[in-house]
Amino acid sequence: MPRANSLAESWTAEPVGRIAAPLREQVISALRQAILDFHLKPGQRLVERELVEQLGVSRTTVREALRELTSEGLVTVVPQKGAIVATPTLEDAVDLYEVRAALESLVVTRFVERASDQQVARLQAAVERFHDATIRTADIRQILQAKDLFYAVLIEGAASSALQQLLEGIQARVQILRATSLSEEGRTFAAVRELRAVVDAVAQRDAPLAARLTAEHIRAAAETALLHMRAGE
Predict the structure, then answer these.
(1) Which of 52, 85, 118 delimits the end of a domain?
(2) What is the 3-state secondary structure (H, E, C) of 127-145?
(3) For 198-205, which contacts have Cβ atoms below 8 Å and span 24 or more sequence positions?
(4) pLDDT value at position 182?
(5) For residue 15, is it within any domain?
(6) Dist. CA 219–CA 211, nearest whole Å
(7) Which of 42, 64, 85 is the last residue of a domain?
(8) Same domain, yes or no: 60 and 98
(9) Is the pLDDT of residue 13 over 70?
(10) pLDDT on residue 91
(11) Do 114 and 224 have their domain in common?
């Protein structure tokens, strides 16, 4: 039987080591995805012993994985408590949103400059799939996954491995903030309107307008998430 408050109560993982990827990378990937999917929630303790038992790997491998996720900002090590799933502070959240606004504006600019007409059409379709998801379900994980499809097309069209790496890192760190923002009543529909405006500017190949609208979209999301955080203080 799982122990009280154990990881097994919130996350069931298959033992790793059955595929070609290095064991350490498999553990990092499994833990990262569990955090991004909210199976492992902000503030939850990551007990080495339980991770060893659940993943079927050595304590050394678990420690290496936790160090990597700490460097990514997804895990925090707290004195006397150990590793926990990171929860952004208000100050961190403000900075992360500003970085995200600047970075995504640059990604959109590169998309306008480099994307094909077919990729523009796929970006439009991705926004409509996001809209469909907001109508079909209230499950925030499904809504986030639908919005992530928009970003997948965006980064593909921007054709920059450097920007892709940076954006994926930021997106991972603000996942809990994104969920908080999109969970607020009416925010998903506002997000659809904002993204449609961005895509309209992209279709017109108006990079400055698309970049400005992207920054406004991110700051609108930030306002909702930060208001929620301040209310909880």
Answers:
(1) 85
(2) HHHHHHHHHHCCCHHHHHH
(3) 198/108, 199/120, 199/123, 199/124, 199/127, 202/108, 202/111, 202/112, 202/115, 202/120, 202/123, 203/120, 203/124, 205/112
(4) 82
(5) yes
(6) 12
(7) 85
(8) no
(9) no
(10) 92
(11) yes
What would the pLDDT profile of 112-164 be if each residue is shown by its tens digit?
999 999 999 999 999 999 999 999 998 888 999 999 999 999 999 999 999 99
* 3-state SS assignment for residue 77: strand
Q: Is residue 224 part of a domain?
A: yes
- Mean per-residue pLDDT for 182-186? 81
Does residue 187 fall inside a structural domain? yes
Residues 159, 221, single domain; the answer is yes
The residues, ordered by sequence, that sit 6+ positions from 232 with a Cβ below 8 Å of its Cβ are: none
| Token pair belonging to 233 | 């203080």
Query: Does the pLDDT of residue 86 top 80, yes or no?
Result: yes
Residue that has been written with the tokens 């949103």 in this structure: 97
Question: What CA–CA distances, in Å, run from 69 to 8, 24, 31, 125, 134?
Answer: 20, 12, 8, 33, 30
**CATH number of the domain bearing residue 44:** 1.10.10.10
Q: Is pLDDT above 50 for 2? A: no
Do 80 and 107 share a domain, yes or no?
no
d(CA 217, CA 221): 6
Q: Is 5 left (phi over 0), alpha (psi -120 to 50) or beta?
A: left
Domain assignment of residue 56, given as a range: 7-85
Shared domain for 43 and 64, answered yes or no, is yes
Number of other residues whose CB lies within 10 A of the CB of residue 90: 12
